[in-house]
Amino acid sequence: MKRYAIVRHADAVVSRIVSAQDLQTLMMNCPDGCDAVPCDDPKIVPGEWAWEAGGFARIIPPAPTIEEQRAGVWEAVRVARDRAEWWGCSTPLGRADSDPDSQRKVAGAVQLAMIAQAGGAPFSIDWTMQDNSSVTHDAAAMIMLGVAVGQHVAACHAVALVKRSAIEAAENIEALTAIDIEGDWPDAPTD
User: Fold this and answer.
1) DSSP label at 13?
2) What pLDDT does residue 61 have?
């Protein structure tokens, strides 16, 4: 059994590899504008090889443009920003979670604390901290926890904006690779 590459004449791209015992039957069933070319090398696969000047040639993808490279670095910064935002932050009564679900819970507890405080009512909540300890927060402590989480989120976004400015100012790949994607994020965990 022989292997054959089906090659489109218009762009010389190898569109598929087939095995057939009968070349004549294979040629009769080739799509219009295509030929079957003997191909015994299993490394030659569609999408990576073309038929040029009577032989197979590896397709070398074009180098990404500076805009494509900028987009890739920005995406990496966004991932790092989210990770930093969500890894938790220091508060007056210990380290608190800061992932999106925790931010939502903190916002709700802060609202309750503010309502109680505005109405002169007592407020106390046992809050589970990042280390799974339970810490009792009064209204002022809960509001301070909310402020700490909010400031942490804002600080992460501020660092990302600085990195984005550097990305936009970069004129070549060397300048882009010099950007420290993983560094400078606030309040990193110490473990």
Assistant:
1) B
2) 87
Structure token digits, residue 34: 């295509």
* 3-state class (DSSP) for residue 136: strand
Dihedral sign from CA coordinates of 159, 160, 163, 169 = negative
Whole-model pTM over 0.90? no
For residue 108, the 8-state DSSP code is: H
Write the DSSP assignment of 110-135 as a string of letters. Answer: HHHHHHHHHTT---EEEEE-TTS-EE
Tell me the three state secondary structure of residue 93: coil
Helix-helix angle 66-86:139-169, to 10 degrees: 170
Give the integer Cα–Cα distance in Å for 57 and 41.
Answer: 12
Per-residue pLDDT band for 191 (boundaries 50, 70, 90) equals low
Helix residue spans in 16-171 (DSSP H):
23-28, 66-86, 100-118, 139-169
**Segment (H or E) for 41:** none
User: 139-169 and 100-118 helices cross at what angle (nearest 10)?
Assistant: 140
Average pLDDT over residues 149-174: 97
| C-alpha distance across the termini of the chain, in Å | 60
| Paired tokens of 157 | 């976004």
Residue 95: pLDDT over 90: yes
Tens of pLDDT, residue by residue over 33-53, are 888 888 878 888 888 888 887
Residue burial 142-177, b: 16+ Cβ < 10 Å; e: rest: bbbbbebbbebbebbeebbeebbebbeebeeeeebe
